[in-house]
Design a protein that fits this description.
With 169 residues, the chain is an alpha+beta fold. 16% of the residues lie in helices and 48% in strands. A hairpin with a 4-residue loop joins strand 10 (135-142) and strand 11 (147-155). Bound molecules: copper (II) ion (CU). Copper (II) ion binds at residues 87, 98, 120, 122.
């Protein structure tokens, strides 16, 4: 009934077309792999599949700050993990270890890439077995109050678009 009234009444046709154009514009400027809220945009988020009994998984993504102010990522949460920490892999000689970061600083008009061997999200104690093709939802909280919920796909390590074939977990 709503649909037919739109198409039978010329009075309602024009707003309908504007709505359609607006939806198309949103679809074109927001590709499905990108999530944005306020000035923060997240792209290329993925989680390499781990062994069946993995106690931790790593999460990678690019965070882009399109705003004029520095913003800090201060917390990450997901119903699929007990805890999520921000880690940085530090290599000294041929030893690599991870240290926890309290926050991730995103400077104005800058981006930070979370990549294998560098900064990553440490996804601790998965609450279910996560296989390639599965999806989890992460909620990122920033110090300006922005919260972004993003779907993140589990992928085999070889599917990494950047072509990185090894990591340190
Ligand atoms: Cu780590």
């Amino acid at each position: 009934m709503l649909v037919s009234s739109h198409w039978q009444s010329s009075r309602h046709l024009l707003p309908g077309l504007f709505l359609l154009a607006a939806l198309l514009a949103v679809a074109l400027t927001n590709p499905p792999h990108a999530r944005a809220a306020g000035n923060i945009e997240i792209t290329d988020a993925w989680i390499p599949e781990g062994p069946p009994v993995a106690a931790v998984l790593a999460g990678y993504m690019t965070l882009n700050n399109h705003g004029k102010d520095t913003v800090r990522l201060i917390a990450v949460a997901s119903p699929d993990f007990a805890t999520i920490e921000i880690h940085q892999t530090v290599t000294e000689g041929n030893m690599s270890r991870m240290r926890q970061l309290d926050e991730l600083v995103l400077y104005a008009n800058d981006d930070v890439q979370l990549l294998p061997g560098g900064i990553h999200l440490m996804l601790i104690k998965p609450r279910r077995r996560l296989r390639s093709g599965d999806e989890v939802r992460l909620t990122l909280t920033f110090d300006d109050g922005t919260q972004i919920e993003i779907p993140v796909a589990i992928k085999q390590a070889a599917e990494d678009a950047a072509g990185q074939h090894h990591h340190h977990h």
